[in-house]
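Q: Hi! New to this. If I give you a protein sequence and the SMILES for pyridoxal-5'-phosphate, can you show me the bound structure?
A: Yes, paste them in.
Q: Okay, here:
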Amino acid sequence: MLENNINRKKQFFKKITMTYIGPDAILQKKREYLIPCVYHFYKKPMQIVRGEMQYLYDHTGKQYLDFYGGVSVMNAGHCNPEIVASICEQVKTLQHTTTIYLTQPIVDLAEKLAHITPGNLSRTFFCASGSEANEGAALLAQLYTNKHKFVAVQQGLHGRTKLTMNLTGISMWRTDPNPLNDIVHIPAAYCYRCDYGLTYPGCNLKCARRLEEVIKSGGFAAFIIEPIQGNGGIITPPPEYFKVVRKILDTYNVLFIADEVQTGFGRTGKMFATEHWDVVPDIMTVAKALANGTPIGAFITNNKIASCYTRPGASTMGGNPVSATAALTTISVIEKHHLVHRAQELGSYLREKLIGLRQKHKIIGDVRGKGLMTGAELVRENKIPATEELDNVLEQLKDRGILAGKTGISRNVLTFQPPLIITHNDIDQVSTALDEILS
Ligand SMILES: Cc1ncc(COP(=O)(O)O)c(C=O)c1O
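A: Thanks. Here is the predicted structure of the protein with pyridoxal-5'-phosphate bound:
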């Protein structure tokens, strides 16, 4: 009897691991059981069942070269064996305690972050997502400055909680029916479509200087910005931008929060993107790639700012032994395999290819980004956003076994944020496919 039961159980598990319900059944369940706000890519989506470094596989066994990396998460590749091994070992040993008990991975990770983050950033609070990290950073800025208002940029995305959704500038992600007051959005450094109709460098960075016009009225705790606005369309500010911003903020004692949730951990060809502009934020937020697919988030600050947050603060899952171990191994893989340098080198190669394609295909209006955070803005005549065309390109790339992303206010920026372990050949494959599709 007992043996029968065990056999039945074994067969059941074999069946569910071998049989996939397929995209139609998933869509049906999604319609029935998920809140409708959870949207997906593609007219004909596939069921993804397996990942291996730069590849994903669907239920039919078809291979996809993943150039979106789970939206800038899988920097060390899908199911990276070194990271998987360390996670499994930790899961088998100690999964969870919360911070009311002492465990080692959380402090080792905080120490490691203090070493790899720029300047005097040295104190970390761990949580479980990017939204939470930004929410915590905003609270810390209010505690430190005793001010309550924030400035953010129109093309920014900072999360899904009440406050971070309001800090977000992109209207499609601002669902809040009762928006918060006291958050001001300024134009981004979007040189391809300057809000002021100016041209860099003659513009004298009017977009950055707008910050001063806003904060001089007083009451601002912080300016929050992604160094490169990811979801906003890989908006990459010019070289002087953050130096100008830093000076203005220092003059008015307003804190600088750098949201490195998408840009962190080698993505842009530096460990953190703010390093490209040679500035040190007061608070940096991270998540996504930190643990290569294991949920984690964190905000990191300097001793002085950290010292104002002394009342109890706890995140049940923040710095959990499994996510902290995953993060420690992810950082060690990034360092050991020189993935930061790789992102820089391969990113330049990818942009070279895209710039070559721009000369041939008028639909590519602009190519921008740093490292392996690259976007190609698709436009019609007079820079009209080629939104439908982009959807077609994405669908056709997918049919050819290549996954890319879409970003931008008008969803017309073809976006590439692949795992940093990709090869030159992978880029050649993407560029050839794109050339053929656009032809
Ligand atoms: C720059 C940035 N900040 C914050 C978030 C929110 O992170 P999470 O989805 O982990 O809450 C995102 C999500 O895409 C993001 O791109």
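A: DSSP finds 14 helices and 15 strands in the chain. Let me know if you'd like me to explain how to read the tokens.
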